[in-house]
């Protein structure tokens, strides 16, 4: 009788080869996972951007509608009867009722040097 051959089903790949194959497969799996996660993130950001843009369009339309409503509510034909019925002393401004003033000459003292705006410097009281 012949002895049985025990080495007949021996693995031809060694441990370093199996380890290298596992490392390559794991790295490819991680790269694939990274690509999928990246594409999902880009897609979700795109959807969020489209949502924000649609919200902006809706808000712009609402702002335009409100501005049109304000313009219609504040037209002269609608405001003037309200003002006259409330007894205000407002009168229409005509070209003849305007008073034209000469421009002011620049004042060269220390008080105007502190304030750069001449209209503020002249309307503030000089007495401390």
Give the key terms.
single chain; mainly alpha; disordered C terminus; 128 residues; rod-shaped
Radius of gyration: 42 Å
Straight-line N-to-C gap: 128 Å
Can you tell me the residue ranges where pLDDT is under 50 for at least 5 consecutive residues? 120-128
The proportion of residues forming helix, as a percent range, comes to: 55-70%
Q: How many strands, which pairing sense, and closed or not: the largest β-sheet?
A: none
Mass-distribution shape: rod-shaped
Order of helices and strands: HHHH
**Strand portion:** under 5%
Q: How many runs of DSSP E, i.e. beta strands?
A: 0
The helix tally amounts to: 4
Helix- and strand-based class? mainly alpha
Structure, explained:
By secondary structure, this protein is an all-alpha fold. The protein has a domain of 76 residues.
List the helices and strands and how they pair.
Blueprint (H helix, E strand, L loop, with lengths): L14 H59 L2 H10 L24 H5 L3 H6 L5
Structure at a glance:
By secondary structure, the chain is an all-alpha fold. The protein has helices spanning about 15-75, 75-85, 110-115, 120-125. The relative contact order is 0.03.
